[in-house]
Amino acid sequence: MAGEQGVLPVADAAQVRRYARTLFRRHPRGLAAVLGLHALAAITGLAAPRLLGELVERVSAGTTTVTVDRVALAIGGFVLAQAVLIRFAHFASARLGERVLAELREEFVERILALPLSTVERAGTGDLLTRTTRDVATLSRSVRFAVPETLIAIVTAILVVGAILLTSPMLLLPGLVSVPLFWFATRWYLRRAGPGYLAESAAYADITDGISETVEGSRSTEALGQQRRRRARTDTDIGRSYAAERYTMWLRTVFFPLAEVGYVLPVVVTLLCGGWFYLQGWVSLGEVTAVTLYVQQLMDPIDRLLSWLDEVQVGGASLARLLGVSSGSPASEEGPGPSGGEGRAPSVRSVSAGRVRVAPRVGRPGCAVLLPGGAGRAARGDPGPAAG
Known about the structure:
The protein is mainly alpha-helical. 77% of the residues lie in helices and 2% in strands. Pfam families: ABC_membrane.
């Protein structure tokens, strides 16, 4: 969408999603390698709860120590294999994230250099400086960590749910008791988090813009006696930033406690329902053990998904601000040229001046410069006669 007067535009949600899909389509092999390695790691991690459930069944029915030792060694082997796969999977994720981040930075630099000078001057240095520093750094963290971790959590959660279905479909419903809580809490949070983080970034840009203008124009501020006005501007910007950050913090204080309740509830309900199902003879003790461990294992990807969801929202707001740099129409920003063409700078060959008073220091009278026929002298660099 277009930005307000004097502010660089911000891309809308459709533009951000379209650009994200474009990034994924650029790296199909890298994305497939990342998802494949993490899927293999997740599948390897599913072996331990199943083996432990079978071990409980055998011990309850009576078995030998040799069998117990074999199962323990098998569990240890799967855990070791999972650690190795996770190591290579994280390496592939980091390599893909760095490649995508490098492309984002190069494209952003191209967008900045393509901006007309008039657009940059109207927006001010603060907004552009914030986008090139804070927003780029925030997006860097999201691309390197948040996006890969989110994809990994989704794949792992799907595989764990599949393992529960294969072990005992009857025990799946108790493990999904927190799904409605997660659904409504996440929808409530996402509707408010995006606009909230955009407002937070805009308020931070206002602070940077005001401080940079005050520093750069400190002599003019002192000469014109505008210190109080500049302090009032800074206080107002800080107040807006405080209110924006307090709003997003309030969103987190509501969302995360609900999520924490959702982590504990499925394990407790699965254990209680599984015990009752076992007493009724509907499931075995090994199935109850395995599914309870699977449900507990399911909480880890859900926790990572919801924890990084906040970082994804912050990164999405930063990406919208970076994409918005080029969402305007640079060709029309400069206005018509002298021959009616769009985007051409006017051709200036002469400058005329009447009486000009220059005061190099505050408190000293300036000198008046009279330039009769100053157009020709200014063009040739001739200062002309001076008086004063």
